[in-house]
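Help!! Second protein's tokens look totally different from the first
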Amino acid sequence: MATTKKDPVLVVLQLSGGNDYLNTVVPYNDPLYWDNRPVVKIPEDEVLPIDGGVGLHPNMGAVRDMYNEGDVAIVHGVGYPNSPRSHFRSMDIWHTCEPDKLGTEGWLGRATRDLDPRKENVVTTVSFGPSLFRALALPGVPVACVDDLETYGFLPAISQEEQRSKILDRFARLYSPAIGTGPVMDYLGQTGLDSLAGADILKVAPERYSSTVEYADTTIAGKLKGIAQVHMAGLGARVFYCDQGSYDSHASQMGMHAGLIRDASDAIGDFFQDLREHDAADNVIMLIFSEFGRRTHDNGSGTDHGAAGPVLVIGDPVKGGQHGDYPSMKPVDLQQGDLVPHTDFRSVYTEVLEDWLGLDAPSIVGGSFEKPGFLA
């Protein structure tokens, strides 16, 4: 008997640079918010309320609409102990699940290995951006890395199939001697060979795509449109990764943050509308995170590096609403002037891995962590 069950798909959107928690999910009914933000604050009459105490940035209308439909989970106070407040180190921690040492294996690289242990599909995981995210990197695990789907591929301008095949064959033979000459060359060689296969698979996605949704002309909208194209092409991709930024808002934060968060929210809204139009949304969730939040008290123009932040999980299968409490802004509860995380980021990963992708989470995240409960 044929089955129509769809494989679950995960999309990760990384807000690079340290997104401001307090001005994204705004605790507008807490007087300490106004005390700490004399300049870098969202006017109360502009906040988009989601309950009596918390609201969203005014440029997050598309996400607020999805929240009202029950499709957005906000996980409060996510992070890890003793934040180094370094972009690079914090991203390493989020990417490798190694807060106490320098990790070398990406958590989604391990997940990809477990999803496709025989490497039968080189586009099981697809990264949208100019370089491979560390979260996806694992020797021996193929990941397709795409900057622009419309021009993606090796030698796309060569139209004659015979000539292109000859050049690709030479390229493959160039890489082949690297196999077996050492771990680094093994990794580079196999990556090149896998990329050849991935390029030819993914090039069909734009050809199969048709939609009434008009995405904005922004970088993040282009990435999410590309993810929609690949997902709806039915190529068996299970994990997608992309980023937007930079949210590093030490100065002139208000206008910069407003533009970035608007572009992100609008693109997310268009992405899910596109998927729903094609009956392709019911097996997709999106996880949105930043490496840390910003300092509670503004610096007169922006905000400096902080610790705790929110994670948003979006999609039809999500148990919408707020999960966990907003971290306290009382001076006695702050650490170095920052909101203190109370939910380990690996708890979020654990729920996604086990309850969505059906994988063994402890072997991927390095331990057992209590799930926040955002999946229905």
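Here's the second one for comparison:
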Amino acid sequence: MKRVNVGPQLEKRKAEIMKQLNADNGPQPDQPIDAPGVDTDDLPAATEAELVERVIEALKTVYDPEIPVNIYELGLIYKVDINDAFADIDMTLTTPGCPVAATFPGMVERTVALVPGIKGAAVELVWDPPWTPALINEAARLELGLI
């Protein structure tokens, strides 16, 4: 495996992500969706495919605390299913010993639950198949200097 020299910019971004993660475990269930000018009650009903896309966009706003890449592009999301506007997500972590293993799934659940049209979310942490750097998408590989 190629070692990555993350450099000062990526180290700064990592520090920002860790600071945010330590200060805030994500949106709280009782917080309103911060979308000025958008009344989610007035949104037309979305298809399951549209809800999946919305959930994926929300997942792209959640960053791994140790690698400055969002969890979707990092390949940590294995499954996104929508059933009756409820999101069911299987995700993994880069390592079972990840320091945020206890809190990260809850943060992801709260983030997804705030997606317009989603009534709730459940995240299951899975370890099979194990995560490997091969799961990182091409854009993230380029950003990390892996290609």
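Reply: Different proteins will give different token patterns, so don't panic. The chain has one domain: 7-28+44-144.
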